[in-house]
Design a protein that fits this description.
Length: about 40
């Protein structure tokens, strides 16, 4: 139990990466649905 900060950092970075992936997926979906405008 000497390294709780590392676990917290891993969780924080993991959540950030997950949010980035979700945002990228949503952005790609929006771009795909709005292809006629391009």
């Amino acid at each position: 139990m000497r390294y709780p900060p590392i676990d917290d950092l891993v969780k924080i970075t993991g959540s950030k990466y997950a949010l980035v992936h979700i945002a990228a997926r949503r952005a790609r979906q929006l771009l795909e649905t709005k292809k006629p405008y391009i």
